Amino acid sequence: MFKLALLLLAALASGGSAEQARFDNYRVYEVSIETERQLQTLQHLELNPDGYNFWESPVQTNMRLSIVVPPHKFAHFEEITTALALKTRLQIEDFQKVIDNERPKRRPRATLDWTDYYTVEEIYAWMDQIVAQYPTILSGSVYGTSFEGRDLKAIKLSQKAGNPGIFIEANIHAREWISSATATWLLNELLTSTNPAVQDLAQNYDWYFIMIANPDGLAYTKTTNRQWRKTRQPVNALCVGTDPNRNFDYKWMNGGASSVPCSDTFAGPSAFSEPETRAMADYYATIADKINIQFSFHSYGQYLLTPFGYSGAPLPSNDADLQRIAAVTAAAIQATYGTRYTYGNSASVLYTTSGSTVDYFVGVHGTKLGYTFEFRDTGATGFVLPANQIIPNAEETLNGIIAFVAEAKTLGYV
């Protein structure tokens, strides 16, 4: 009965309808926060949005964020920016046009071909299909159940015993479709590529993938709100969802996370309040001693970020190695298509966060190499990366990972 009541609250909080939200003539602005007054005003606005949507939460000065501005707020936004002397840049003139252009070939597929973005069901069906196709080297598992009752699935590639382990989790933030698209493409490449460097990765490393860490949220972005970021467990009658990448029990609520339930960076009523995060942590605990490298796939911004992200965090003892590996990886990514990645400590080059997956895996389990990828682009389309960029993004990521593993091997991590 309690879960039924929560589901009813969720229906009320989401308007009780699965009709797809539209964003015709909505603009997206990049805003630079330079003063405490600017920060406090934007924090107040995030708490009382009245149509605004923040792609990043205003957590500190000396950061940039993107705000979606509805047409009825154009004049109001101009007044605010003038009064606060905010530096802004128009990123997107009409957000709905970007969404419409994201999936020009939108139609059901029998299998994945990475020319489109796919549903939870399509991705899971593909995972089941390839496990059946490669039963001697692939194994699938269900490591938990989401709030709405969806399976939480993992898949492992192993060609021989004793290999070093590489763990990849994707789509923990619902709207970041490119993350699961890239993860699935990478696994397919490990299975089918004739490139000797890729074959070496497939044969001499064990790969663990969580393609969709937040399936409820991903499903909601497909049916109802393309901008949705969080999980779908109701918090109260007005607010639904927790930011799962602020919900892990390591330095939880120690900067860069919100205690306000309707905020996109709400850290949850407690650490591991979400079944999705608790299940991932439990799964990782079963393989942590086998994992040498951990990647968290996100978008957007073109960053390669190292731990720790929480407020006042020290740099890891091996930070010099982390940055050396990141530099080599960024260079290999750029050499592919010219895509420039910024790399460095996440709190220093981007903004403060706490309760994240990478900090948890490194801080709790001692994983030596933990990194966050923030994929394409730098704001022209934001989270709504056109489907024709899936394969180029994945190709440059693979080249980066090849270079990453080679440098990690040179330094003795694998």
Automatic annotation (TrEMBL):
What Gene Ontology molecular function terms does this protein carry? metallocarboxypeptidase activity; zinc ion binding
Q: Which GO terms describe its biological process?
A: proteolysis
Per its UniProt record, the required cofactor names are: Zn(2+)
- Protein keywords: Carboxypeptidase, Disulfide bond, Hydrolase, Metal-binding, Metalloprotease, Protease, Secreted, Signal, Zinc
Residues of the signal peptide: 1-18
Q: Report the Gene3D superfamilies cross-referenced here.
A: Metallocarboxypeptidase-like, Zn peptidases
Family membership, please give it: Belongs to the peptidase M14 family.
| Functional summary from the UniProt entry | Involved in the digestion of the blood meal.
What's the protein here called? Zinc carboxypeptidase A 1
Which organism was this protein described from? Anopheles culicifacies
